[in-house]
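User: I would dearly like some help making sense of a protein record. I have put the entry right below:
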Amino acid sequence: MSSADETPPRRDLPAPLPVWVRAADVLTVAAVLLALSVVLFGGFRVTVGGGRLSVTDWWRPLVWAGVLAALRHWRWRSVPLWSRVRGGLARWWTSDDIRAVLPIHLASRLGVLGIGFLAVVLIGLPGPGPPPVQIYGNAVLDLPARWDAGWYLSIANEGYQWSPAAEGTQQNIAFFPAFPLLVRYVSVFVGRQPLWTGVAVSLIAFFWALVYFLRLARAHLDDEGQAAAAVWLLAAYPFALFYSVPYTEALFLLTVVGAVYHFRRGELWAAAGWGLLAGLTRPNGAFLSVVLGLMVVEQSWQAWRAGAGVRWMEQVDRVAAAAAPGIGMLCYSTFILFLTGSPFAWTAQNAAWGRTYRSLDTVLTDRVEYVTAHGLYAYASSQALDMFYLASVVFILAAVWPVYRRFGIPYAVMLLVNLLPPMAAGGLLSIGRVTSTLFPAFLWLGAAVPARHRSAWLVAFALLQGFAAVMFFTWRPLY
């Protein structure tokens, strides 16, 4: 397939508004929303970049909104702001992408939270004591406060903490900054409720990611049914439960799919922006540079084979955009250098979570030897979660070759570079979360599963996601 989408120019669209008009409209709407935030949640004071921002009176941002709107409409009356807002909302609501994705998003994400609540009230938590993380003292309000959510909240509330004396213990520098800092600064507008702000960020990011993924699937696959199936399968995947909680998976999926989508279309600034954010969201975000770099090579090879010649300056721009995810990782490493004295101290934290290097063949042979010695039933009954994770690894490995055959080497490499290094560093620890964001496997699955079998696959995936949700929300180990 072509390495870039061919999108014909639209002739029915009006001429774009001047940049200053669009900027004034954005600032006006932002000021109105800021005033509404003060009315509902009482305003805020926050420190940003060493400076202090204080907004405690609702009327001040409203006055600024009025002044901006008056100046804007005095100079440019042809397309009023309220008409733009109304038209934008109408176009958004009637968009084919939104209408296709919204029911998938609501059914899968709210379903997971509903199962989690029922599991807590009907099954309960293990042990007689209180849960390890408790914020509100309420089973409903504390529902998303599970496992690593506590670490993200510690960064959102208190920032990064480092103690050289506790170097071998778990510290929050192991977690990359994009998600917790986004939660930190968004939460000031909603009454400083970082836990549920984190849930909202994940839900919105996943919705946006599904929109991107649907567009990408339509570009790659043969028909609308296959594209919709790919989206449904990704949302129903057993480890997709992490898209409903304050974890990084939803934001990471959004950044990766967004970067690839825009990169294929030659929209390099957008691709670089999403790529930079991917490198700041998770450690494996830096591997996206490898994938985008291979897309540059693939495009150059196709152009050379077609005899079209290679535009080298264009390729330099594409290589610069492809480097953005790696630059994001290096930005965080630079911050860690100033905090700890070692730029990659965050990698050393892996050992505190039980991540130590093991050869890949050992990860697999250990399990083969156990099954050979004790039988499959003993493995399934005594190490059920391990088998659950192993099944996700087998799924991704099985997808590598057909993904390469159908979509090319960049997507196949994306599966390998995101799967094999975490396995070498920590075995199957957290590998389910890793596999949930590897969207090329779901592109292949959407195309490979016959239409008559899609319902069966979705039911099986959804049942397993329900099982994973019960484990996660009742504080049973699922990591």
